[in-house]
Amino acid sequence: MPVTMTTRVALALAAAGLSVVAAPSATAHEGAGDVATNTRGEQVAERGAGVRMSHVANLQYDRSGEAQNGSDIEFVRIDGRDYALAGTLDLGMQIIDITRPTAPRRVAVYDCKVSQGDIQVWKKKNRVLASYTADSTLGEEGAASRCGRDLKLGLDDAGTIIVDLTTPSRPQSVSFLSVPRGSHNMTVHPSGNFLYNSNSDLATSTAPAVTIYDISRPSLPKKVQDYRIPYVPTSLGSESHDITFNASGTRAFVAALSQTLILDTRNPRAPKQIGQIIDPSINVVHQSDPVTLRRKDGSTRSLLVITDERAGAAASVECPGGGLHVYDITGSRVSEPVKIGAWFIDAVRPQEGTTCTSHVLRMYPRQKLMTIAWYSQGVRVIDIRGLATATGSPETVAMGSGIGMREVGHYVFPDSDTWSFKTNRISRNGSFYGYGNDLVRGFDVYRFRGLTNRTVPPLVPQDLGSDHRSTPSGLLAPAAAVVPAVWVALLLHRRGRRRPS
């Protein structure tokens, strides 16, 4: 971008009370994981602001008046009833009946006081199983909670717990996968027979690896190997933070802090690297999710959407923080992805110390929609149908609308600090109930009213989490040198343009 443009917009930012600043180190990913950054009162806010969305219900995990520490969320349908599985940083897995979305009801808590609480859910024969992560050592509380007692875990244990949810009101401990460096996230292969672990350690780790386990016998998991991945020097880190498989399980997309790796996983015991993305404009590669869309002529296009959890969810001084970076990976481009641009929410403003950046997303390719949590900027719904034909370049920046994506709904509370936002069911007109898991507020239910200008195929109730979390090369600059110049383009783009209604 020309220096003259940067100078002009920097002056404009200064006049508006904003500043272009370097992203701080991503320390929030170490140890106990991300930390709630808003101050919670005795009661959460009851009113917020939204576009095409309304708030339906809030459910508290802990009535002490403290932050609720909600993290990941997944869904499962058992015996005709729908359940949300909500992870927490230290309050165990919350099992919530959402058969009536307007009246969510907690039916059980799997007592496992560990930090992170990332969840995957899958079926094995007649059993419903879930995995639950401990990123750091269990400590006294974790070892003394039910999962620690059942599995005879010690204070220094870290890793992944497998839980039987066949009877949701009576979750049962099954087994423990010991991972000394912790399970920040884990991903179950679509076959249900393998689990890939992401430890998300930062720059102190110089021998990064994805640890692979055979979980074909859930009660007797076995380590397969530590699959070595590239080390990126002078970066925040090279370890995997999160992994997403495609629906068939033949590809894995590894979001590894300073890089994204594309793996051939046709043999999930022995993956092979076929692509790498190192993008200096991304501060923290948080999630890398593929989506394949069909064009009007019947052909298909595959894309990869990479979320930048700027500064590792450290407190922000401005919004919109890190955005979504989009790559074309159609056909042979899977080994040399082509960037078509970056997308940000339409919210340029001071943030006053709370967290503002993209976080957990989910794709719904059949409906051409995406949901995403944006911490203090709440929950967002994105129309992605334009990605099938969008053009752009590495320098293309969009805010609210552009590069084939268009925000069509959002809802924000004064105390929002939302970690994840997903849905298990979308109606034919695109309306749905969405579920947010919030560090401050706990469990929130929202209603998205849908789109009046198009009809989308319905999403049937999900039995399992559908994502199965289910290259240009070059060195990434040190974090302190990564200046989010996107604010320049964002502010220019904002001038002379009306906000969406």
UniProtKB/TrEMBL annotation:
Report the protein name in the record: LVIVD repeat-containing protein
Keyword Signal: yes or no? Answer: yes
Q: Which organism is it from?
A: Nocardioides szechwanensis
Q: Where are the transmembrane segments?
A: 475-492
The residue range of the signal peptide is 1-28
Q: Which UniProt keywords apply?
A: Membrane, Signal, Transmembrane, Transmembrane helix
